[in-house]
């Protein structure tokens, strides 16, 4: 039996399909998904999860229509700006990770502002992965290590140069919408993560289903390649 997972990751998938099934524009699915994100952040914080990583925009998502990408960036900006008090009230610190320098300047500034405003919070850390890819993070870490003059590349060195070095390995990875893949998310951190899949589309994902995933995790036996 496991205790509560320290680090939970979520691939929030299915916004577009949710909207399409209702005859709505894809952006309405993203808008509804943002509402669910707020509820799950609060639920995870109150449950005692220490780190919650949310896959908000991958490096591959640039392939989507320009209008949808621009809407997503503005939605993220509005979200972080409007939820500052929610983070503070729940003692949640906010972090963003990915190739952030490639994002619009207003979004970079928004992320920096809320990171600074919540830096003192000691409860859960909510990590938003934006313009993020697991392979890209490892490549960037190796390049930063070489630039810093590291003579030998090993696991300890790579971890030191990841986007958020103090982010612990992933205990539980949740993916919604019925897809059975991890889509380049937290590849380094998920070497021994427990996987939990649901057919529920992200805009329909509930706190009850989140708690069900946590309970399922707690019943699993983790051996990390060894024996018990």
Notes on the protein architecture:
With 228 residues, the chain is an alpha/beta fold. The protein has one domain: 3-Layer(aba) Sandwich (Undecaprenyl pyrophosphate synthetase), CATH 3.40.1180.10. Helix content is 43%, strand content 15%. It has eight helices and six strands; from the N terminus they run E-H-H-E-H-H-E-H-E-H-H-E-E-H. It has a six-stranded parallel sheet, sandwiched between helices. Helix 1 crosses helix 2, helix 2 packs parallel to helix 3 and helix 3 packs parallel to helix 5. The longest helix is centred in the N-terminal third of the chain and has 22 residues. The protein is globular and about 55 Å long.
Briefly summarize what is shown.
This is Isoprenyl transferase. The protein has 228 residues and is α/β, with parallel strands linked by helices. The chain has helices spanning 15-21, 26-47, 66-82, 84-89, 105-117, 134-147, 155-160, 207-219, and strands at residues 7-11, 51-58, 93-97, 125-132, 172-175, 194-197.
């Amino acid at each position: 039996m496991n205790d509560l997972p320290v680090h939970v990751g979520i691939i929030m998938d299915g916004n577009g399909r949710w909207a399409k099934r209702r005859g709505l524009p894809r952006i309405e699915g993203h808008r509804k998904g943002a509402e669910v994100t707020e509820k799950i952040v609060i639920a995870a914080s109150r449950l005692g999860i220490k780190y919650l990583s949310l896959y908000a925009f991958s490096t591959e998502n640039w392939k989507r229509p320009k209008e949808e990408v621009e809407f997503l960036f503005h939605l993220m900006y509005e979200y972080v700006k409007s939820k500052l008090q929610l983070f503070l009230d729940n003692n949640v610190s906010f972090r963003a990770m990915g190739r952030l320098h490639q994002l619009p300047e207003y979004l970079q500034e928004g992320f920096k502002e809320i990171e600074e405003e919540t830096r003192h919070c000691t409860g859960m850390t909510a990590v938003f992965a934006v313009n993020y890819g697991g392979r890209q993070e490892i490549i960037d870490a190796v390049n930063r290590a070489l630039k810093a003059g590291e003579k030998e590349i090993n696991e300890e060195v790579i971890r030191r140069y990841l986007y958020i070095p103090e982010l612990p390995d992933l205990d539980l990875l949740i993916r919604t919408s019925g897809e059975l893949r991890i889509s380049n998310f937290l590849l380094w951190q998920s070497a021994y993560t427990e996987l939990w899949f649901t057919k529920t589309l992200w805009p329909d994902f509930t706190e009850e289903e989140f708690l069900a995933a946590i309970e399922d995790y707690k019943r699993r036996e983790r051996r990390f390649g060894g024996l018990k």
